[in-house]
Amino acid sequence: MRILIIYFSFSGNNRRLAEYLAKEIQCDICPIIEKKRRTMLTIVLDMIFKRSPKIEAIETPISNYDHTILVAPIWDSKIANPLKTLIKRKKNSLNNYSFISFCGFDRPGQKERITNQLTDLTGYPPKAVSELKVCELFPSEYRDEVNTISRYHITSKDLFKFEDKIYDFLHLIQRTKY
Ligand SMILES: Cc1cc2nc3c(=O)[nH]c(=O)nc-3n(C[C@H](O)[C@H](O)[C@H](O)COP(=O)(O)O)c2cc1C
Fold first, then answer.
1. Of all residues in the chain, what percent are helix, strand and coil, respectively (each to 5)?
2. Which residues of the chain carry a pLDDT beneath 50?
3. Ligand 1 pocket: which of 6, 42, 74 to mutate (most atoms <8 Å of CB)?
4. What are the structural domains of the chain?
5. Could you give the strand order of the β-sheet that contains 3-7, starting from the edge strand earlier in sequence?
6. Angle, to 10 degrees, between the axis of helix 13-25 and the axis of helix 163-175?
7. pLDDT single digits (tens) 138-148
8. Ligand 1: which of 50, 105, 145 to mutate, most ligand atoms within 8 Å of CB?
9. What is the pLDDT of residue 95?
């Protein structure tokens, strides 16, 4: 099965995750690059106005792959807006897809909201959705500290703590019959 990883990352966590996955399964990887410089302010404005920011053209022929793994942060319980732009633009080339995120928090119902958003955008559900939550790296009394969690940069040691979840996600994809 030919797998492609497409990722967006603002502060580096999802880039690190995407690169780790690509190395594990030896597949091609492609970043989403924005036309304008991203700041914390533009994240908030995109969230409020539900904008789809401009991104550079993706030259990789997505339709040549059997499965695309989409990797991006979660903002306000939705996929990061640049990934939304990519999906809107490329949904007809996506044969099958799944989504994984290094997100921040343990928000009830967030995974279902993400699944519904992806289904609405593409017209069919993802094969798998997985949230790796930064807050799980912190003692329980700090898990709701929005600033601390949102600014945390994961390390390769941190990634190993999520190995089981990552393997479950990859197994789910690789077990899927096309
Ligand atoms: C403005 C903002 C809103 C966020 N909203 C959420 C959210 O609703 N749910 C969540 O789990 N994480 C949320 N996060 C946390 C990010 O998803 C998390 O920090 C992620 O690891 C950042 O990924 P990156 O380093 O690849 O950009 C938010 C972060 C920011 C900056």
1. 45, 20, 35
2. none
3. 74
4. 3-175 (3.40.50.360)
5. 28-31, 3-7, 67-71, 97-103, 129-133
6. 50
7. 999 989 899 99
8. 105
9. 87
